[in-house]
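Researcher: I'm preparing a figure for a lab meeting and need a structural model of a single chain. I don't have an experimental structure, so a prediction will have to do for now. The sequence is pasted below. Please return the structure as tokens so I can convert it later.
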Amino acid sequence: MATILELAELSHAVYGDASVPTGWVVMPGHFGTSQPNANGYYGVAYINTTTHEVVIANRGTVITNGPNDANDLYLLGVGLLPQWVLATGLPGPSPDQTDAINFAEKVNSYVNSHYPSYQLIETGHSLGGSEAQAAVAALVDSGLNTTVSAVTFQALGIGGAYYNPAKTYNRVSEYTVSP
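Model: Understood. Here is the structure written out token by token.
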């Protein structure tokens, strides 16, 4: 199983300025990376054929990326809204979370057809962690993957409009990074 350190390193590697831990490679083909888009989302699917795992690492905020900054502000505002407002289904996932969900669904479909025994794990730091949490909630709620898990680092979290508040999600672990 991927260690917390490996998941932290993959969360860092998605930014493109760090190496990938031993045993992990980018999943081949167009299933390995999302395409950068106007919403600022970017994710990479890493595969480890020894441990039979696939990790989707979601890139967090890139300060010079205007859409990332806007998504952070959106999530901060949503995170502060009362739960009863979120239960109405509005405002819903941010645009980058929607992109993370779409990428996770695409990778999940590929993994199910080509690597059916592999475990799927979502990870990310800050905004990337929020994207990971939203993707896990969407995969579980839709029934596409009921065993997916997430390990996130300093993520803001997601509000009740993003998942079914009646469910319990025992698949997300949150860590705070200390220097």
